[in-house]
Amino acid sequence: MLTRRRVMFGTGAAILAGTGYYAFNRGPSYDEMAESIRVPVKPGGNPGLEYLVHHATLAANSHNTQPWMFGGSDSHVQIRPDFSRATPAADPDNHHLFASLGCACENLMLAAAAAGRGSSPQFVPEADGRIDIDLAGETDGRDPLFEAIAERQCTRSEYDGKAVSNDELALLEKAAAVDGCRVMLIPDPVRMEQALELVVSANTVQVNDAAFAKELKSWLRFSATHAVEMRDGLYSGCSGNPDLPQWIGNLMFGFVFKPQTENERYAAQIRSSSGLAVFVSDADDKAHWVQAGRSYQRFALQATTLGIRHAFINQSVEVAAYRQEFADWLGIGAQRPDLVVRYGYAPPMPRSLRRPVSAVIVS
Ligand SMILES: Cc1cc2nc3c(=O)[nH]c(=O)nc-3n(C[C@H](O)[C@H](O)[C@H](O)COP(=O)(O)O)c2cc1C
Known about the structure:
The chain is α+β, with helices and mostly antiparallel strands. The protein contains 14 helices and ten strands. The strands form three sheets. Strands 1-2-4-3 form a four-stranded antiparallel β-sheet. The protein has a four-stranded antiparallel β-sheet with strand order 5-8-10-9, with helices on both faces. Strand 1 and strand 2 (about 75-80) form a beta hairpin. Helix 4 packs across helix 5, helix 6 packs antiparallel against helix 12 (about 285-305) and helix 7 packs antiparallel against helix 11 (about 260-270). The longest helix has 20 residues, at about 95-115. It is globular and about 55 Å long.
């Protein structure tokens, strides 16, 4: 958990920034905002669009751009892509954008079930593509995964290397099973080391890609103050980096974002993990990318319930030149490996922020 002390005293520069912030700004601190966006919203009458969207927006999403808009009514919700929040350098075909919509869709369906509503999602390919969720149906009841929505997080730290039991791996696999997508678990350290080689090769390409670095930088929130203003993007503290005034972070980024440093960090993180999970969908189209997002979200919620942490290491599926090599290594032929995460045990990290629900509900 990010403490106010850590925000203010992370570095000498942060002391200056923090002092100014707390002396003159009466708004919430980073921690207060992270807490407030997770205060439970109770179902309204029917069960209420705000209640559903609150839970949907706590889902994982690429670069925390929150590339979604919600419309319709609480008996028929539409989740639409917001391409103004796309990341073309990291995600040229919008695969991650649609997977992010899938993550939100899964949370929304779990929230509906917790309020006694069954739901059936359908990918509508018209125009740019959207997800329609009909909430008129019956439900089997509350899914225990619902309880983990507010607590789930991507934990980008080194883990303690402890193995996850076979029983728990079976639960993760079961939770992640959705139509058109499955998860492949890789707990073998020899196989993990082979995967790491591909991650390092692909990561080197990404870090050396000026467009990728520029785009990433535009979503980095180096200071808690800036993160609280924007309520999106990747706050340094969530990755274990010190809090810096935004302008200093922007200035320093080019000097510290280097292949060797980044590769060493990923190697340590993967080697400290209990295993890897690769989400593989049956076909390479938007409807299946959505399903991959749903599968990941269910995996992540189940992991959270079991006290297991996870974080993405997607480089070898993001860099097209390595994706097929990775698929060959997995032995999945022409199927697309959608997403890759590592899992294991670690204390929680600071939690990410979200924009207000009112900002993403459109008529
Ligand atoms: C499709 C998708 C791709 C992602 N890719 C990465 C990634 O490559 N590296 C990473 O550290 N996090 C990745 N993330 C995690 C997001 O950055 C994270 O979900 C977001 O910052 C919000 O934080 P939270 O999940 O802790 O709430 C990805 C998430 C999604 C849904």
